[in-house]
Design goal:
By secondary structure, this protein is mainly alpha-helical. About 50% of the residues lie in helices and about 5% in strands. It folds into two domains: about 60 residues, no CATH class; about 100 residues, no CATH class. It is built from seven helices and two strands; from the N terminus they run αβααβαααα. The two termini are about 30 Å apart. It is found in: Membrane. Pfam families: ANF_receptor.
Length: about 170
């Protein structure tokens, strides 16, 4: 499932009512595109709901596996996050408040950087030949590249960066 936390909760409550949670025959997967700190400890709990429904939801959540992006805690990410927040405030009058910068922002930044590295490699070869920018050629230039990324602070490029970079080159 890929939905907001309220919808996920309602789906799981319906599954619990249908006996799908206790049967052991079903497992539920959720993809969390952005995590919020207040939902992570007790995502099944809604303060305005009854204790009985909250307990049913808690039980239903035992059959749920949630996949989410890890928020990095390295110095590079923290500095990048501060810079994004500062730029958003200064140029667009947008404040994040207590929210953290989405990991998708850093993934997109890394993908654009990877694309730029491939572009830098291709352009000096034949500056006037546009066909050299064809998507397959660009993607091949990205294979095997590595740089220090914000996701994990290592020399490995996350698979998501390759997917994003490949998507960027598909429609040249």
């Amino acid at each position: 499932m890929c939905a907001n936390s309220t919808t996920i909760r309602e789906i799981l409550l319906a599954a619990e009512e249908l006996g799908m949670v206790d049967s052991g025959e079903y497992v539920f997967f959720s993809i969390e595109l952005s995590s919020s700190d207040n939902d992570s400890k007790e995502p099944w709990r809604i303060d305005d709901d009854t204790d009985e429904r909250n307990e049913k939801a808690r039980k239903a959540y035992q059959a749920l596996l949630t996949v989410t992006a890890r928020t990095p805690d390295n110095l590079e990410y923290l500095n990048f996050s501060r810079e994004v927040k500062s730029l958003a405030q200064r140029k667009y009058n947008f404040t994040f408040g207590n929210s953290s910068v989405s990991t998708f922002v850093t993934a997109f930044y890394d993908a654009v950087l990877l694309y730029a590295l491939a572009l830098k490699e291709i352009l000096p070869e034949e500056p006037g030949e546009v066909n050299r920018l064809e998507g397959g050629n660009m993607t091949r230039r990205m294979w095997g590249k590595s740089f220090k990324d914000f996701f994990n602070g290592s020399e490995e490029i996350c698979i998501i960066l390759f997917i994003i970079a490949a998507a960027l080159t598909m429609y040249n």
